[in-house]
Design a protein that fits this description.
Length: 667
């Protein structure tokens, strides 16, 4: 049974722990390996950067800072000798420090893992060799170095070690019973730890180092209460997340408030689920590609990184009663934590290409637990991911700020420009519902002026101008938009403009723009363009557009019906040009139209749509010379569904007059 908290496979592959915190030794030899291991144990225990020590893995060869596979392993004799030597010589560390020695089996090979936690009684010194003096060893990157020979480091290190990091301190007002064993075992299951097999809960707590021995009894550490008690805010008032959602009205009134409490990892997960449900998503099919591109209001990876950073690096001490605050505005999301960053972090380091230097962390244990749960990434890697995820989403870059007294730290994620447009549309719809049409238009126009590359806003403005008959202003909107817009956003707005021109009798303008946009249409935009091309009697072009829409046509009863009508018109054109030469093409088009119409009448649609679909099916079956009984049935269904429609009744009567003589001509 493993006594390691971390999953062994994750450790060897440096997944949930930085490679700088793992040192590999391919074999054991007390004369050479022994003192190297002893110095590294001392350095990890001194924990210069407050990242909670590290691991020495003996029996695994190293290559470029990572484990080399397949691993070599150790003999049982080597493991026993290594444990005995390490235990004995760790008594030479001043003050004495004993790591956890964990013999483990990985893929059938025996190895020894030396787990070294950040010490509560640092600073420590260890000998440089069998008869050499003791020194202060610290860890810089992947190296174990003598702090005294690195200029200025020893003084800084000794000043830092005068206190234990807050999250590793014992909680004086709590009892071990305040830890929930169910929360602990759920955590161990999530990280796939071998400790899950240990039946004794208190033994698990000791191995996880979430309790500490005080005289003859044990007390929980602060980090244990944060992750494994039912109500951490009972001891730490700021251990909560507060979300405030502000409305987009002029007063900026609060629309909704939400508070997340409980164990820290549950706060994080529940908060992320809430934010994910709020995040609008828009998908756009790319021409000539199988992938789908799109955007979200806020990239979830950027939210994850900034939220974890807030929970990881804030203070939970009694003098910080404020919760982590998330403010949702119409155009941005702000995550604020208290206090600001530790000394050594400056604003310019948080810029896109800033050089973020490694400085001692505020909470060494909180970060470890988040990493083991795979909720946090490698140290100092999160900032680059926030910038990258915002870039990939097409969002403006994030902003970070804190005051000169470092009382707070705020991360601001600007919303995607199109999300801001959607917000403006919602506001306009609300105002229109209140019959405040002028205010609704002003809201749209104001948003458009701030973001004139928004296809959503451009299309809605053109529709609004169409309602009041202002074609000139609509054309100005189109000209401004089309000169700078993304090619993915153009088709929808182009269709809106074409529709306006069609309604105003500007058929030539409609044709020219449709020809210009020919290759850009996809999905619903292609369907809309096809229907307008049909109105312009450009049936071949309409057929092309319907085909570009692919499977979307099959899900839309109107589109499928109009596609069938286009095929019927093309069949007529083919027959009228050269009936004998094009007979096969004519029949193919009619058979395809028949299949589409038969699908339409099986779909959920208005009775008017179904009536005309039955009418068209009757005509197609007549042209295909199908059995009279089937044709009669189609006509009757059309008449029964729409008995007041004179055109259908007249066409049915004409069919009945002509049908017996067989004089109906193929189109």
């Amino acid at each position: 049974m493993s006594s390691l908290l971390i999953n062994l496979d994750d450790l060897l592959n440096c997944r949930t722990v930085e490679s700088e915190r793992v040192e590999f030794k391919s074999s054991w030899d007390s004369r050479t390996t022994g003192y190297q291991v002893l110095k590294t144990i001392c350095a990890f225990a001194n924990d210069y950067h407050n990242i909670n020590g590290g691991y020495v893995v003996i029996g695994v060869e190293e290559k470029n800072g990572r484990a080399k596979f397949p691993i070599k392993g150790l003999s049982t004799k080597d493991v026993e000798e290594a444990q005995k030597w390490i235990r004995g010589n760790c008594n030479r560390i001043d003050p004495v420090f004993q790591p956890r020695l964990c013999p483990e089996v990985y893929l059938g090979k025996l190895i020894l893992v030396v787990a070294v936690h950040g010490s509560d009684v640092r600073p420590h010194q260890a000998p440089d060799g069998e008869k050499k003096p003791i020194k202060y060893w610290i860890r810089l990157g992947s190296e174990t170095v003598d702090a005294e020979v690195r200029g200025g480091l020893l003084t800084r290190f000794l000043e830092q070690t005068t206190r234990i990091p807050w999250d590793d301190r014992r909680a004086r007002d709590a009892k071990v019973e305040d830890l929930r064993e169910t929360h602990v075992r759920e955590f161990l299951r999530d990280v796939d730890s071998g400790l899950l097999d240990e039946p004794d809960a208190r033994a698990i707590y000791r191995n996880m180092e979430i309790t500490t021995k005080v005289n003859q009894h044990e007390e929980p550490r602060n980090v244990g209460l944060l992750f494994f008690s039912g109500s951490p805010h009972k001891w730490f008032r700021g251990a909560k997340i507060e979300i405030v959602h502000f409305a987009a009205d002029r007063g900026g009134d609060v629309q909704e408030e939400k508070v997340f409490s409980g164990p820290l990892q549950e706060q994080y997960r529940n908060c992320m689920n809430y934010l994910e449900n709020l995040s609008a998503r828009q998908l756009l099919k790319q021409r000539d590609r199988s992938q789908v591109r799109g955007w979200v209001s806020y990239p979830l990876q950027a939210i994850r990184e900034t939220l974890v950073n807030a929970l990881y690096h804030r203070s939970y001490d009694q003098d910080q009663p404020e919760p982590v605050k998330i403010y949702l505005y119409p155009g941005r999301l702000e995550i604020t934590s208290y206090p600001g960053p530790v000394p050594g972090i400056e604003l310019d380091q948080l810029e896109r290409d800033g050089n973020l230097r490694p400085v001692p962390a505020r909470n060494r244990r909180i970060g470890d637990f988040f990493k083991e749960l795979k909720l946090a990434e490698r140290r100092m890697s999160g900032l680059a991911k926030v910038y990258r995820s915002m870039d990939e989403n097409g969002s403006p870059p994030p902003r970070f700020d804190f005051d000169s007294e470092r009382t707070y730290f705020r991360a601001t994620l600007p919303a995607h420009p199109e999300y801001i447009a959607l917000s403006a549309l919602r506001d306009a719809a609300h105002l229109q519902a209140l019959y405040k049409n002028d205010e609704a238009y002003d809201r749209l126009l104001s948003a458009w002026k701030e973001n004139n590359s928004s296809g959503i806003l451009a299309a809605e403005l053109i529709r609004s101008l169409r309602k009041i008959g202002d074609q000139k202003s609509a054309e100005e909107i189109w000209d401004a938009f089309s000169s700078s817009a993304s090619p993915y956003a153009l088709p929808h707005v182009a269709n809106t403009m074409i529709e306006m021109w069609l309604e105003n009798g500007e058929r030539e303008k409609s044709r020219k723009l449709m020809d210009k946009m020919h290759l850009a249409y996809q999905g619903q935009d292609a369907i809309d363009a096809a229907i307008m091309a049909k109105r312009l009697r450009k049936f071949s072009r309409a057929h092309d557009y319907f085909e570009k829409a692919e499977e979307r046509v099959l899900e839309n009863s109107r589109a499928l019906h109009e596609f069938a009508q286009v095929k019927m018109e093309l069949a007529k054109e083919v027959w009228q040009r050269k009936p004998h030469l094009w007979k096969q093409a004519n029949r193919k088009l009619l058979q395809e139209a028949r299949g589409q119409l038969e699908r339409v009448i099986q779909m959920e649609a208005a009775s008017v749509r179904l009536a005309w679909a039955w009418r068209d099916l009757a005509r197609v079956m007549t042209w295909l010379n199908l059995p009279v009984k089937d044709i009669e049935n189609a006509w009757k269904n059309a008449v029964n569904l729409l008995p007041t429609e004179k055109q259908i009744r007249c066409e049915y009567e004409k069919y009945k007059r002509n049908s017996p003589s067989g004089s109906i001509k193929r189109p």
